[in-house]
Amino acid sequence: MQAEFVQTIGEGWAKPLNRFMNEMELTECLHKKTLTVDGVTHLMSCPITQHCTKEVVDACKDKEFLALIYNGERVAIINKPVFYANRKEEIATRTFGCFETSHPYTARIIQQGDFLVSGESMSFVKKIMWNDGMDQYRLTP
User: Fold this and answer.
1) How many whole angstroms separate alpha carbon 18 and alpha carbon 122?
2) Starting from the edge strand earliest in sequence, which strands make up the sheet with 73-85, in order?
3) What does the angle CA 105 – CA 76 – CA 20 come to, to the nearest 5 degrees?
4) Structural domain boundaries, residue 30
5) Which residue among 38, 44, 100, 130 has its CA within the 20 to 30 Å range from the CA of 137?
6) Separation of alpha carbons 32 and 43, rounded Å
7) What is the biggest distance separating any 2 CA atoms in the chain, rounded to whole angstroms?
8) CA-CA distance, 41 to 100, in Å (whole number)?
9) How far apart are CA 17 and CA 11, in angstroms?
10) Is residue 139 part of a domain?
11) Number of compact structural domains in the chain
12) CATH classification of the domain holding 38
């Protein structure tokens, strides 16, 4: 699980996004650097997605929800999960302007699972704490 993105969405830093991007939102973000929600277009240059493996897809494709676990605790729930292909090369190229495998973020994208997951909505169960001595200073919008 990408805990940073769960925190970003859950605390409101990615408004109006309130769950991981679905395939159409990802495509709009990659091609236009925008996100249109309820007829209003917002700037959104960073794709916010959650990757997973084929094993997760096979195990969860008919489930009503998918729990996201961080440090052994449930932090969020994806309601009515939807899975789609993780177009890694396109995501890396359109986000960073090149497909260089030595680029640290491109390398992270290449290592991801072959699928992305979104859903109808997300419920946030617990605030993510990093336990690094800085949590008390992390404010929310």
Assistant:
1) 7
2) 50-52, 115-124, 73-85, 65-70
3) 45
4) 3-126
5) 44
6) 9
7) 41
8) 31
9) 11
10) no
11) 1
12) 3.10.400.10
pTM summary value: 0.92
pLDDT at 140: 86
Asked if the bond preceding 81 is cis, omega within 30° of 0, the reply is no
Instruction: Compute the distance between CA of residue 43 and CA of residue 108 in angstroms, rounded to an integer.
Output: 24
* Tens of pLDDT, residues 3-53: 999 999 999 999 999 999 999 999 999 999 999 999 999 999 999 999 999
Burial class (CB in 10 A: 0-12, 13-18, 19+), 1: middle
The token pair that represents 53 in the structure block:
């493996």
Structure tokens at 35: 């996100």
